[in-house]
Amino acid sequence: MNEFWLEILITVPAAGIDLVCHEMTELGSTGITVEERPLDTFVIPDPDEGVPEILTLKVYFPPDLPEAGLAQRVAERLACLVPLVPGLEPVVPRLRRIGAEDWAENWKQHFGILRIGSRLVVRPTWEDFQPGPRDAVLTLDPGMAFGTGSHATTRLCLEALAEAYEACPGPQRVLDVGTGSGILAVAAALLGARQVLGCDIDQTACQVALDNARQNNVAQQIAVTLDPLESLPGKFDMVLANILAEENARLAAALVSHLAPGGVLILSGILQEKEQLVIDAFAGRGLAGPDIRRREEWSCLCYRKEA
Ligand SMILES: C[S@@+](CC[C@H](N)C(=O)[O-])C[C@H]1O[C@@H](n2cnc3c(N)ncnc32)[C@H](O)[C@@H]1O
C-alpha cells in the first residue's frame, strides 16, 4: 500500500468537469472526487437540486509519479482546455502529500462498538470486546454493501428490532427486505429468530449478507434471496424494510401481506419530510400504529398487524 498520495485541488466550471477529469487521468491520477457532490448511496440525488457553477475537484496521484513539476504539468493541461471550458483558470495548483492512513483507516474511527438495547452489541471485526453473559454480539466487517449500524436508518431499525426481542420469545420468523450487509437479519437471528429471510435486489448485497451470516454462526437460520418481495412465500412475525420512503410506500400491500397476525412491521429509510407519504400508504391496512422513532433527518415507523 502507498504510504502517501499527492493531492491537488482544482476549481472547475461545472461544464468542464468531464474534460478536466479526463486530462488528470491521462496525467496519471487514480482517483478524483467532487467536493460539492458527496456520495451517499442511500439518498437519491434530487433532480431539482441545482449544481453549483464552480466545483472543486480533489485529484489524487500515486507517489511513484515524479512529484517535481507535477503541479506545472497540471497547469499546462488546464491551459490547453481553456478554449473549450470558458471560465477555467490555468493556475499552478498547490500540491500536498496526504498519508494513506487518512483514507484507509480514518473512517474506522466513525465505526466503533455499538450497544443497542439491553443485549445487542455490534462489533467491527477489528475491535476487541468481552461480552457479558446475555450479550448477543454481531461481528461485522463492512463489505461492499450498505449497513454498518452507523447510518441513522440502520440504527433506528436495530433499536426497534432489539426492542421487539426485549419480550420473550421475540419474533421467530423474520423477513428483512433490502437486507444489504445482512446486519438486521443477523441481529434478529442472534437475538433468537428461528428463521430469517433476507431479500435484496443487489446480488453483491446478497453475497455479503450470506458472508456475514456465516461469520456470526447464524447461517443455518438465515436464507437470502434475489427474488422480489411480491413472489416470496410465507408470513412473518416481523418484517423489516430499510429502503426509501417511496419504495416502502410502493411495496405497502406486499409488505403487509407478509405479516402474520400480531406481527411487527418496521419501516426505515424514511426522510422525516416523507413520513406522511408512508403513513398514507399504510393507512387502512389493518395495522396499529405507527410508533415513530427519529434520528438525524430520518424516521422509522413501527406498526403491529391486528391479530
Ligand atoms: C439502505 S440499504 C439497507 C441495508 C440494511 N438492511 C440496513 O438496514 O442497513 C437498502 C437496501 O435495500 C435494497 N433494496 C432497495 N429496494 C429494494 C427492493 N424493492 N427489494 C429488495 N431490496 C431492495 C438495496 O439494494 C440496499 O441493499
TrEMBL record:
Q: Which GO terms describe its cellular component?
A: cytoplasm; ribosome
UniProt-annotated binding residues for S-adenosyl-L-methionine: 154, 178, 200, 242
Record SUPFAM superfamilies:
S-adenosyl-L-methionine-dependent methyltransferases
Q: Which GO terms describe its biological process?
A: methylation
Example of a GO MF term: protein-lysine N-methyltransferase activity
Write down the EC number: 2.1.1.-
The protein's UniProt keywords, in alphabetical order, are: Cytoplasm, Methyltransferase, Ribonucleoprotein, Ribosomal protein, S-adenosyl-L-methionine, Transferase
Presence of the UniProt keyword Ribonucleoprotein in the record: yes
- Using the UniProt record, name the top-level EC class of this enzyme in a single word: transferase
> InterPro entries this protein is in?
Ribosomal_L11_MeTrfase_PrmA, Ribosomal_PrmA_MeTrfase, SAM-dependent_MTases_sf
Main subcellular localization, coarse class?
Answer: cytoplasm
Q: Which CDD domains match?
A: AdoMet_MTases
Compartments, as annotated in UniProt: Cytoplasm
Per the entry, what this protein does is: Methylates ribosomal protein L11.
Q: What is the official name of this protein in its record?
A: Ribosomal protein L11 methyltransferase
